[in-house]
Amino acid sequence: MENGIGENENSHGSLNKYACSSVMAASIISAVFGYVVGVMSGALVFIKEDLQISDLQVQLLAGMLHLCALPGCMAAGRTSDYKGRRYTIILASTIFSLGSILMAWGPFYLILMIGNCILGVSVGFALIIAPVYSAEISPPSYRGFLTSLPELSINIGLLLGYVSNYFFEKLSLKLGWRMMVGVPAIPSLCLIILMLKLVESPRWLVMQGRVGEARKVLLLVSNTKEEAEQRLKEIKGVVGIDENCTLGIVQVPKKTRSGAGALKELFCKSSPPVRRILISAIGVHVFLQIGGIGAILLYGPRIFERTGISDKSKLMLATVGIGVSKVIFAFISIFLMDRVGRRILFLVSAGGMVVTLLGLGVCLTIVERSTEKVVWAISFTIIVTYLVVAFMTIGIGPVTWVYSTEIFPLRFRAQGLGVSVAVNRITNVIVVTSFISVDKAITMGGVFILFAAINALALWYYYTLPETKGRS
Fold this sequence. Notes:
By secondary structure, the chain is mainly α. The chain contains 23 helices and no strands.
């Protein structure tokens, strides 16, 4: 059966259905993460009201999810090198289920923080393993498209989180937010069952010396036997196995199998090209987070409330539009990724964010300085916020993950991405835990003008990066 699939009549350039379905399944973990981020934007409003907590406690609860993702990121890279990409996804799903159930039960603030910490660890795993698995399953001609699916799934999950905020808001105060945060347990449990039936990454199998198993997987995820053999030859070359070796199992050094020493080599003994790769990967993740998108996704209701919307149902509905904008432009992005290239999307995205964030900052400044209600500001703020999200989602959002995944050599990929995402989470924590405090210090309009300046700096940075479209 496997050989039959490997030698099907599909053209060499068509999208392999098994590879696509494997990536889509793995991307469920990304959708769960997106849901958690989206649903917390509304849940925080109701948690604050129900548990009578302060703004500082709200900021700490919001930031804890991302802070606890740090150990998850670092553990995910090593775990996926040691136990495999597939079982790491299963582990992440299990942790997601536990954290969601604990959050939903949470009778008081301390339990919520513990549940949020557990969710944070699973977020760290999800951010690493879904892009790595997707990149290693995907054929080169569709790598940009397929590696974008986890980011698209995050956006779909985010939209579902906003939608559930709107509908669960209609329940009682104590029940509504608990339903919001408890939902992720269901898809997480389903993913555990699904991943048990899917294949392991062929690159990881070769790293373990299991060449025969890797060949069977490649026959499934390639359109022709010739394509599978060519991919296997390239992977063996990267791992250091003789390309003419036809054994099913090959002895590979323990250092290669487990990923031991990869971080030390990456930081202390790296060559100039690998050092530049590390700096580039960290840089794109830093600019993704300090550009302000995390603040908009988490504090959307607070931003809209500043313009004069006070009804909670209307606030939740306005926030749904953020999710709709992200999903629409994420779909557009995945079809552009392998057509126009990564670098062009970076530049268009950053340029658009500079203009829209500046417009948003000026509008909010006018609102905050006005003694009367500014009627036009409500519609303008909502529309421009959607445009900010659209520009980020068509480029910087998905391209950051594709770019940072594909530029690392195989030996450093999982743990190198782990370092990049750890930095991503640190900068995200700084933004989400300081947003309310900075808002009070320089006004919300000032915050978004600051974000516009940061994206102008990011525009220059992206201009210095090389294009990776179509490269091995």
